Amino acid sequence: MESHVKQVLVVASKTANSERLMKEIEGCAAAQACRFTLLIPDAGDREKADRTLAWVLPLMRRAARAPVIGLVDGPDPFESVQRAVQEGSFDEIIVSTLPRRVSQWLRRDLITRIETLGLPVKAVIPKVERDASAAGVGEGGFGGGF
Fold this sequence. Notes:
five-stranded parallel sheet; alpha/beta; single chain; Rossmann fold; globular
């Protein structure tokens, strides 16, 4: 009998390459077999979002020790997550966002709204802002300050 592979939706943009998020992914993958999907919601600039995916997916694959699927959607972050949940078969959601004082997602109560979708949600917030902006990911933003 095969063991269940946990399907994890990772929602991130400016913090997609943060050390804290990578450690969270490593921990999940070490605890049980997981498949990760990175969703960049509220992407106002598709070209920037694609560049972020190109930069971050290899980092996430290394942390997950497995392939990671990348998705881009928009313009509303909640609707993007809702759509991904409806179209996928996820067991859990990880939301990586900037600290409260600068996060538009937290100001818009995105995590609480995502919790209404009925899946466990874990918030990952980098310790320092520069952690999220390493190597220029997120420079200029994707319309939300996440």
